[in-house]
Amino acid sequence: RLREVLEDRLQEIKKAKTWKHERVLTSPQDTKVKVKGAEGQFLNFCANNYLGLSNHPEVVEAAREGLKNYGAGLSSVRFICGTQTIHKELEERLSKFHGREDTILYGSCFDANAGLFESMLTQEDAVFSDALNHASIIDGIRLCKAQKFRYPHRDLNELEHLLAHSEARLKLIVTDGVFSMDGTVAPIKGLRSLADKYRALLAVDDSHATGFFGDTGRGTEEYCGVVGAADIICSTLGKAVSGAAGGYTTGPRELITLLRNVSRPYLFSNAPPPPVVAAALKRLRENTREFRAGLQAAGLTVAGDDHPICPVMVGEAPLAVDLATGMLERGIYVVAFSYPVVPKGGARVRVQISAAHAPQDIKQAVDAFADVARSVGIVKS
To answer: Are residues 198 and 118 in the same domain?
Structure first.
């Protein structure tokens, strides 16, 4: 009976053209990749490899050195015998990088968000979450006993209304710094003002900003001109910073100490220390501007702010699938997103720009998008 029920659901997904087909790469993560079952190479425009460090020789060598000096794993959680000097060194460097008192490492940022809310909030407290926050924030909030409020995306007026009517002991506002499906940036300055006005705390998930967003890669705070605005930052080492794995929470020393003692997903991570590459930051900004301008000139709608996440908005799921399929046929690897990953009617093809993309890569992608969009009827000839 279970197989029948599940098969019916799978057929519904296929019929709606929202099936998530996993293509298998047969090459390292890079701007050009090989895909199992396909000939030749494809330009990769769907990775979080913002600074092009996933396969950078220095990062690969750092991983080799870490393996040689510290082994492949620790077979223990941190508080028993799972902490090595490399973990403490990375936590110290991340604290200095963000200008915070202390940092705690996790296996991923998903774990960091899962461990935050349950650890610090009780039924006396309240959490206020942006409607488009990442699934890890949503799941983390579900685990805690606090009062839960969701405000419309970046709607400061509605958030203020909720804060003004709350009598909670602790009030925690939580937001993505950059929203990964839209490329929009949280109004950090306005959120900080409301936090100050209503004696609330501000937590930011900066996974799609750390290491490359802002003049020195300090993330959304720096981009918005309010460094230090967030009381708590959760972020990742698996995107711009090394492209490897691991997540962390950084903030007040007392909070980090509490997380070390009661946070359930608290795991070790042995990712290499994060480099900040000025040249890569410059190239990333230039590539982003060039790509956005090219697609807009071709008549396509690119959502989001001045960020390397460039969602090409289509609307209907079948059109998004057709666009992504046509791009792959032209040697460009992108992925279509539709409901339930994004709202109904908001299907899109998400493009992610990397500093490692050469100017000719950007031009090739722009030209291909223009051609395919015309051929599938998204843009009229």
So the answer is: yes
Residue 271 lies in a domain: no
Helices marked H in 198-316: 220-223, 253-262, 278-297
Q: 56, 98, 171, 208: which one is catalytic? A: 208
In a domain, 174, yes or no: yes
Q: How many CA atoms lie within 13 A of 135 on its CB side?
A: 4
**307 and 364 share a domain?**
yes
- pLDDT tens digit sequence for 152-207: 999 999 999 999 999 999 999 999 999 988 888 999 999 999 999 999 999 999 98
Instruction: Pick the closest to residue 349 from 300, 302, 308, 312 (CA basis).
Output: 312
Q: If residue 347 lies in a helix (H) or strand (E), which one and from where to where? A: strand 347-352
Give the domain range for residue 151: 57-262
Question: Which residue in 339, 279, 328, 335 sits closest to 310, CA to CA?
Answer: 335
Amino acid at 110: F
- Give the CATH number for residue 305: 3.90.1150.10
Domain assignment of residue 183, yes or no = yes
87 is catalytic: no
Condensed to tens digits (0 to 9), the pLDDT of residues 85-130 reads: 777 777 887 888 788 999 988 877 878 888 889 889 999 999 999 9
Q: How confident is the model at residue 268 (pLDDT cuts 50, 70, 90)?
A: very low
For residues 45-58, give the mean pLDDT: 73
Determine whether 344 is an active site residue: no
pLDDT at 307 over 70: yes
Mean pLDDT of all residues belonging to the chain: 84
**152 vs 140: CA distance, rounded Å:** 19
Q: Identify the residue with better confidence: 30 or 370.
A: 370
Active-site residue, from 87, 98, 134, 239: 239
Q: What are phi and psi of 52, to 5 degrees?
A: 70, 30
Which residues, in sequence order, are CB contacts of 350 under 8 Å at separation 6+?
A: 46, 181, 309, 310, 311, 312, 334, 335, 337
Q: Is 165 a catalytic residue?
A: no
